[in-house]
Design brief:
homodimer; 296 residues; alpha+beta; seven-stranded mixed sheet; 8 helices; globular
């Protein structure tokens, strides 16, 4: 199964397909965005690598990150847990303590508990659009600057360390197991911008987010890869194609930059074919390089 | 694992526990309710009994039913699907056609697709509280009447037929595989009532819903079981304890009844101990009779 072709199929089946395509669905009549993201045992995580506390923390952050990518303020979460028989109360308590820690001001307000053969976690998050301009990946315009939050590739580097049985340096393990959603970066942009703009999180990798924006906006995105912030230990392939950093990448007008902090300019949006230009190499898709979980 | 003791544990871990306890969480600042419910292969369904179309239909109805239980207007849905490798495009297309059919005016606006060993479905539904009074199971008051929509026990009767390899009479199979959420019953009550009231759906059985209301509201609920509408083929144990009918049961003031249609009065709310009185037999819990899925 190819996820992208299945999403096309689903959009052609539904009569509400205009809502589908961004990290969140924007519901203007209710003034909210909603997203739902799942974590499946042995697909997205292995219990030998991640503690229940970290798993609860990451579940919440992954969903809050999607809300941040829309520019909305994360407010509420529901969590649905499917748990095998061997799971004990301590697991559930630790999981929710991690979830509570990651939530900060976001309220966990419901969900359900069911049995299952493996651990399956699905969470839905709601954000408020009040006072915020909501992004869409189709809103990048020629002349806009491409900016990113944080460092890239550290999570995938940490995953590779775990797969190799290494635990040091610990900062990479932490980047993978306990990513932090970029609330402030999102808020600064969405509260200060007047124009349409594009923003995504880098859950499937930075290059994937960039190409999604280029395709949806029908623009050329030129990236100078030497500008992408990353840990000196992380190679450029992992920086570009490693996923799960949950950093943000945005295409915004230049005037906005003086109102922002904590960003790095890595490229430009240009008129032209819907392609990603990485230091002069042109890509129309990077599916063969896409970040892989344990199994897809 | 006991679901109810785990929910207690979760509530004690979270600092937002006041939202947890009803079929939906009510978020007054956003004017919405939200619910999330999951269907797990071999726990809630078997692919040998249910078609992909029916599964999509039921997924949507189960979540819309929770919104109806709150009294809100169902408006938006997200669906998260975890699918094993053997699942083909036809399954996905049929699933979403069933989901679209059940949705009617509700819009399916997102979700995600992941791999997995079994089919795992989790959906989140949002309802609008605009012009509606939102229910809570803790709001039953002495003097209120207990009313129900529809017929009870048909779904569990249908499940037992499937387990016995029987396909006739078809109405029971349909009640189990393609339940219909009670939108009109919910709307009539929540648009016309001024006082606090209790309402639940009967996903875990009618007797379970009644005892939840009695316990949460700290009242005695007297039921005349001969008044409960049911198909003549269905025995009273299945009527009381069979689940997944997705009918509604409500405790409402008597004056409201003249504004309603399609309801049956089955009992009264009385001052006294928090118990369920079925024809004179007193219950403080019915956990040993609770509706069982294939596996829990």
């Amino acid at each position: 199964m190819n996820e992208k072709s299945l999403i096309k199929l689903i959009k052609s089946t539904l009569n509400s397909s205009e809502y589908i395509g961004d990290d969140c669905a924007y519901l203007p009549d209710l003034g909210i965005v909603i997203t739902q993201d799942s974590l499946v045992e042995d697909v997205h995580f292995k219990t030998s690598f991640i503690t229940p506390y970290q798993l609860g923390f990451k579940t919440v952050m992954v969903n809050i990150s999607d809300v941040c990518a829309s520019g909305a303020e994360p407010e509420y979460l529901t969590i649905s847990l499917s748990l095998p028989d061997y799971i004990d109360e301590k697991f559930v308590k630790d999981f929710y303590e991690g979830a509570q820690k990651a939530s900060e001001k976001v309220k966990i307000v419901g969900g359900d508990l069911t049995g299952g053969d493996k651990i399956y976690i699905s969470a839905a998050a709601i954000g408020s659009a009040k006072g915020r301009k909501i992004s869409s990946r189709s809103n990048a315009k020629p002349g806009y600057k491409i900016i990113v939050s944080g460092e890239h590739g550290s999570s995938a580097y940490g995953l590779n360390m775990l797969l190799d049985g290494k635990n040091e340096p610990e900062r990479f393990i932490k980047a993978h197991l306990m990513p932090v959603a970029q609330r402030e970066f999102s808020k600064l942009i969405s509260e200060n911008i007047k124009e349409d703009y594009a923003m995504m999180d880098t859950s499937d990798g930075l290059a994937d987010a960039l190409i999604q924006i280029a395709l949806a906006s029908n623009v050329t995105i030129d990236i100078d890869t030497s500008k992408i912030p990353h840990d000196p230990l992380v190679d450029i392939e992992t920086v570009l194609y490693g996923g799960e950093d949950y950093q943000l990448v945005a295409a915004v007008p230049e005037y906005l930059l003086k109102k922002l902090t904590g960003y790095t300019i890595i490229g430009d949006v240009k008129k032209g074919a819907a392609v990603l230009n990485l230091d002069g190499k042109i890509y129309t898709n990077i599916d063969n390089k896409l970040y892989k979980h344990f199994k897809e």
